[in-house]
Every structure is written in C-alpha cells, then in structure tokens.
Amino acid sequence: MDALSHVEQVMKPMEPVPAGWTPLVQRLPGVRVAIFDIYGTLLQSAAGDISLVSSEASRDGMVLAWQTLGGEGEVDPEHWIARYREEIETQQRRSREIGVDFPEVEIREVWRNLAKHFLGETPSEAQVERAALCYECAVNPTWEMPGARAMIQELRGRRIPLGLISNAQFYTPVVLRAGLGDIVEEFSAELSLFSYLERRGKPSQVLFERMRAQLAGKGFSPEEVVYFGNDVRKDILPAREAGFRTGLFAGDRRSLRIGDRPESEVREVCDVILTDWSQWKEVL
C-alpha cells in the first residue's frame, strides 16, 4: 500500500470545535497572492501540538512503527517514545548551537537513528518512511477544514497564485492531498516553504523573509500578499513583520493559538479573522 492509500485508509471524519470568536471581515484591496499554513488552517488537526498527543495514541503508534521497522517480539513503547523525543531534542540542540533560531529536524533521520539504536541496523528507506507515517497518522489525525477545498477551487478560478509556509515533514504533502484531494496541485512549489527542508520552523522570520524574496522575484510586493494561519506567534506576527497582510483562522478551538494575549490584542494585529472559510469571499 502506498503512502497516500495508507493515509486515506486511516483518516476519519472530524468536525471543528467552534472557538466562539466573532469574525473580523473586511476587504483587502490590492491583494494578489494567498499563502497558507497547513495544520489547523487548511487541515483539522486532532492533536494540534505534539504535547497534546494522548499517551495511548502515542504508544499504539510507536508499536505499529516498530513492527514496520521489522521489530519482533515484545516492545516497550514508552522506552521508544522517550528515545524518540530525546533524539529530536538532541538534533534541535545541535542546530541551535550553530545559530539556527527555531530548529526543525528531518524526521527520517530521527527514525533511522531510533531503529539503529534499538534494532542494531538501519532499515530501508521505505521502512523508515512508512514507520514515520504510521506514527504520524496515529498521533495526529487530520481531516479537511470545512470549506478549504471549495475556497482553493474558487481562488484557482480567479487565477490567484497560492503558496504554503508550514511546519511540515516529508509526509505533509501526502497528508494534505489525502485531506483536500488533487486540488492541492494548485499550490505553487515555488511559493511553498516546508520547515523540514529549510531545517528551521515557524516562527523563524527567516522563512517569511525568504518567501518575501521569492515573491519579489515574481513581481509581487509584500502588501499584495495575504498569509493565513491559526497561530498568532508562529503565523501572524512573523507574516506581519515581513509586510504581508494577515488572516487568522479561528474556526477550530483545538488548533487556535493566541498564547496569553487577550482577544482585543489579537484583533489589533490581524487584518482579518475568519471563523469559516466561506468568509474569504468578503476579503479577496
């Protein structure tokens, strides 16, 4: 079974949990490009953050990953989980030591090292990728954010260039396709930045400045760009600093991230706040 088929098989329908926010909707004249976050914005994310993953889901996912890597007999999933997190922290620490502000790992390296530590050998690349995907699907179930697919289809019809800036891994494009279908092909590869490829994640300003430069190379100025995300610190503030217009997606309480800021302060730093993707028509 290929990666896409696996994700589609294990995905289960979800409904967003209303955050209870009043939308802030206004026309953004002059916007010609739309850039999006993925998790919590275009896709519902049941976990939202790795710290919120249930222990049972994490254990079950690790057992499945261990079996995928060729493990036999009994396994202590808690031991594997502890080592998994330790490996991530070690790689992030090494990156910080050489000046990376918000380090991101390449998750396949983590799984290779994990397998070598416990099994004594490095599995095939196919096993590594399947194990990583199995664990991800177990701990972070996803589903389409209602209205996202229709929005993308209509933006395509208006010939508005679409891009992505997301904390992501190699499997994220597959997960996104499973959630939204072939419409994801409308996102320009030249206007998409994934943290695992850049080896740094949001809210690093480097990502947004890099996108700004890529857009400038295509003739777009920052004020002609709107960036949509669900996290004030990781999405809204760095996008605003880069000169982009900003849209906070507040349609799902599980993934809405405002930190300790009062709602009044959040409304001051966002150009728009959407609680449903159908509201984009009043913005662009």
Describe it.
With 284 residues, the chain is of the alpha/beta class. It has two domains: 3-48 and 141-282, HAD superfamily/HAD-like (Rossmann fold, 3-Layer(aba) Sandwich), CATH 3.40.50; 54-139. 44% of the residues lie in helices and 13% in strands. It is built from eleven helices and eight strands. The strands form two sheets. It has a six-stranded parallel sheet, sandwiched between helices. Helix 11 (263-269) links the parallel strand 7 (245-249) and strand 8. Helix 4 crosses helix 5. The radius of gyration is 19 Å and the shape is globular. It starts with a helix and ends in a 10-residue tail after the last strand. The model has no long low-confidence stretch (mean pLDDT 94).
Task: Outline the secondary-structure elements.
Blueprint: H1 3-10, E1 33-36, E2 43-45, H2 55-68, H3 77-97, H4 107-119, H5 125-139, E3 142-144, H6 148-157, E4 162-166, H7 172-180, E5 187-194, H8 195-198, H9 205-217, E6 225-229, H10 232-241, E7 245-249, H11 263-269, E8 272-274
Parallel strand pairs: 1-4, 1-6, 4-5, 6-7, 7-8
Antiparallel strand pairs: 2-3
The CATH superfamily of the largest domain is known as HAD superfamily/HAD-like
Please tell me the total number of domains: 2
Biggest sheet layout: 6 strands, parallel
The coarse silhouette is globular
**Rounded mean pLDDT score:** 94
Strand order of the largest sheet: 5-4-1-6-7-8
Task: Determine Rg (CA atoms, Å).
Answer: 19 Å
In CATH terms, what is the architecture of the largest domain? 3-Layer(aba) Sandwich
Oligomer: single chain
